[in-house]
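--- STAGE predict ---
source: upstream dedup step, 1 unique chain passed
mode: sequence only
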Amino acid sequence: MVPLQARAPVLRERVMTALIMAGLFLLAIAYLPLSGLALFFGVLICLGAWEWSGLSGWQSAAARVLYVMLVGLLLVLLYRLGGLGDTPRPEQIQPLLGVACLWWSFALLWIKGYPDSAVLWRARITRSVMGLLILAPGWLSAVYLLSHPRGGVLMLVLVLVVAAADIGAYFAGKKFGRRKLAERVSPAKTWEGFWGGVVACALLAGALWYLLPFGFGHVGLISVLVVVTVTGLASVIGDLTVSMVKRESGVKNTGSLLPGHGGVLDRLDSLCGAAPVFALGLLLVGW
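--- STAGE serialize ---
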């Protein structure tokens, strides 16, 4: 067991990094135009792509740079296909979000079948494609949400949903955790923690529907509950998918850029899973 004296500096470092990240996020949302936000989040995604290239098995710096460039080109292509430079129309963005959500359903099957499922995605090329399917749709969904008049609020709601799922799972798992959720992927996660996250998301959904006057008035409470809860579940799948690939690659963190947190991708995994589901859910309920 790690002594409290040893854990205190790590916790302090983790909290300071989280505060700096939150401050940068809020400043970007408040002051950058949509094109600036697309670039800001694109840089984060490319940093995540650098880390994913290592998880994919690419060793040379040249190969990893080429992978980052490929991800960057894909973001530019999605920007044009989704009409994100203007006001994106639902018929432009919905098919792209649908494909992203379909991918996460396959990822869930692979998580459930791990380690046997690794035979399907262990190859370097397959893992590289997985990275494209994780990173690019997450960016697309975030920029699409930000294109709305109240896009900053929607992004904050998305972050709150992911945080609620994580915090609810942590405390419920710590208090009641007994049965492992995906022991071979992430041994610390439990079914009790999972349901704690679901309850936290449901409570957050009720609070959002009741308190926030930004357009939920015409959307029923049940619809808000479904969108928020399913978004929380998708964040868990995003986290477990990256954990599964890290375990297969034999690493604990995707990188070391963020003190106390690991790599950029260690912070983006849940958001990349949640963002397409949240964006598509809002479209489907007519928000």
